[in-house]
Give the backbone structure.
Amino acid sequence: MGVVDLFLEIDREKFKMALLNSIVNALLVFLVLQFFLAFFRAPLYITLASVPVVFALSMHRYLKRYNLSYLEKENPDAVEMLKTAKDNIREKNAIVEMFFSELPQRVKNISLDKFLSIKYIALRIVVIFVFMMLIVMVPPSDVTPGLENLFGGLLQNGRPNIENIALKNPDDIFGDPQLIKLGDEQIQINIQSSNNEIDFNKEREISKREFTRNPFPVEAEAVLDTPSNEKEPEDFELIKNYNLKIRGV
Amino acid sequence: MKLLGPSNKDKEIPESGEIKSREIQNMVRKLDDLQSEIGKIIVGQQEIVKQVLVCMMCDGNALLESYPGMGKTLLIKTLADIMDLKFSRIQNTPDLMPTDITGTYIIEESRGAKQFKFQQGPVFANIVLADEINRATPKTQAALLEAMQEKQVTVGNETYKLEKPFFVLATQNPIDMEGTYPLPEAQLDRFLLKILLTYPVFKDEIKIVERYTKLLGAGKLRKVMSRDDMLNLQKLIRMVPISNDTTDYIVNLVTKTRNSDYIEYGASPRASIGLTLASKAYAILNKRNYVSKKDVNDMAYPILRHRIILNFKAEKEGLKPDDVIKKLL
């Protein structure tokens, strides 16, 4: 193999190493972003959009970095061999021929060692694996209640999409969790605030009040504006009876 | 052009280099075997053995400086036995004459007629150990130095070629310099390497004591290399490729010895040639088929230490040649 072919071979190896490093970086960034942005219910395409950007920047960086000066700095042995090959390219004797025949493999072995930092790649693969496990095992809704609909609210014109709400506790005594679809119609609910005013000038004794079975305070009530024409789904009667039964009513 | 075969002594390496890599690998294997065979007799001192081998491979001569009883004679005799080469020893004394080294004419009577016959001196060997060369007179030293440089001996009007390979290992004792004739710098320059033999480390000395107090006589050595193998090695090492960068580095290093603040007189171009050749041989011994800067740095000390003369500033600071060479590197 001539010295020119050897340099082409080194360029190919450089490209492969840059590609490998860039793929690992892009995957790592994707998983980290996906993990953190999932808390804010960001859609997948936001994190996916980062992948080609990170990949391109990474490729550019590595290709620029893995130039001959880097090779010279990190691989003085390889450079010495290449310079010897270049300066003796016209020599024809047994030792030089032996040297040329062994040169590509030797340079490749030394160069790859420096281009491919096994420890660094192994560390990134471990981090990737950790984040993959985190994404699978830690659902975002368990960790950050209250921030669930932040992005959802903005992107869906203020209409909460509660189609995908799952019950927090699958082992609830009310049965298996299931999706409850309340229909497609819009319901306007007016909540009238309590008429109680607190007059600090009027002092009176605290009156004892009996606890009532009604869990909702009577001061707050919801008044339906217009009755809904929607028919109740058939299952609702079943659910209603079941709930009344288990409450002993 | 015939290729070299390991068992056929008549074949030589052709100049065009039609040798196969298999033969080169055989040579390298033989060098390994040689070093391991030497290890059976000489304990430790691997670097010294390598330097002696470098000298032989470069077709040069070595000056070995060490205290008495360090195994110089044993080392060189072991080498001669393993390589199946003729060995001779010259014990230099102030009364030694040049003809005691080169040989002389003697009168021989044969069939009633008397004639002069040249009686070869101890220099007619492949490996010559010249013990305490600084004890011989300058005239006697000159006779040996001519043999070293020219690989020939002149006696009277006749010139006799010395059989190749020819290698002189001259020794010097760093103590007990009274009544000696130190070699002038011009003569020192003819030695390729100056090897410093130091005391062995504790573990090695234990092994030496165990080996030489339990058994009478050295172990049996097998001949792993022939005369032709050494000649072929000498040709092979000149084929080792070296980059222009490394050559510049060598010449730059030798040039620095002429401009250093600590050196009165620097090394000559002979040092550049010697350092290049020695680096090539050292690369082969380290199983590499190209010269690395590390080879040059390792060989710089034995190549340069006897070719530089330190000035007063260096002596005032208590610097030795090796310290100055380290600064230059």
Summary: Chain A touches chain B through 20 residues (CB under 8 Å). The mean pLDDT of chain A is 71. The longest strand of chain A covers residues 189-192. The CA atoms of residues 184 and 230 of chain A lie 10 Å apart.
